[in-house]
């Protein structure tokens, strides 16, 4: 039995992995897949891959592309979610902010530098026509840190996945002023180069299993109720999320990779663009 360390955010996107693990689908192929939730998100996961603390990560596309261009010895094995991520733009429910335009020249809470919340703050600012060089940040590590920071007034707004933060909006902790979807498919499966070179057949088996599970995921009876219960979501929110989300069983298209690198380069978030072969497995 080969132990494989896999990491991802504790969000509804990753339920197919947990179902496959619980049902022994990986063990049937001689793989002991050890899942660890990483609430801090993509920035922390990039670091863990680089430090060989994990073999595989389910990670945001823009974050891992940036990290690879900076020398992280990782490649993208395939696309995982083929649809954009809907980033909610949140403020404290007690704040005076009512419109996105009022957030110009304020401070954004981010989980860490290089994370999705950091990179998407730039994408959003560019969309709004703001000066991206004037952005200011407060590192808050995770969702709990964002609640504390916005409530205390240490940061003014926070971008995080729309449905993950919806319960905080419902509870009157956050107010959502709008959404900013990613201009590309949001999650990929990234693999440490050392692991992929030494264990290519095992990686192939892992991808085959998860692709079987994601292909049939939406057709599982009452999957919407299972998701709602597992992640503390309202059923109508999960139904809306399922309707706009599509899992992928293919490699990330080269044109998408070009789009990501062009955008990051235009925002001066990466200093160089790499050939496809340096990023895609």
Please provide a written account of the structure:
The protein is α/β, with parallel strands linked by helices and 281 residues long. The chain is built from 11 helices and 10 strands. The mean pLDDT is 96.
Q: In which range does the helix fraction lie? A: 25-40%
Sheet with the most strands, sense and barrel status: 5 strands, mixed
Q: Record the strand order, biggest sheet.
A: 2-1-3-10-4
What string, H for helix and E for strand, traces the elements in order? EHEHEHEEEHEHEHEEHHHHH
Distance between the termini: 24 Å
Query: Low-confidence runs (pLDDT<50, min 5 residues)?
Result: none
Helical segment tally?
11
Query: Which shape, going by the Cα principal axes?
Result: globular
Query: Approximately what portion of the residues adopt beta-strand conformation?
Result: 15-25%
Mean pLDDT: 96
User: What structural class is derived from the secondary structure elements?
Assistant: alpha/beta
How many strand units? 10
Whole-number radius of gyration?
Answer: 18 Å
Element layout with pairings:
Layout: E1 2-8, H1 15-22, E2 31-37, H2 42-50, E3 56-60, H3 61-69, E4 74-81, E5 86-92, E6 107-110, H4 116-128, E7 136-139, H5 143-152, E8 157-161, H6 166-170, E9 174-181, E10 187-192, H7 193-198, H8 200-216, H9 223-231, H10 235-244, H11 254-266
Parallel strand pairs: 1-2, 1-3, 6-7, 6-8
Antiparallel strand pairs: 3-10, 4-10, 5-8, 5-9
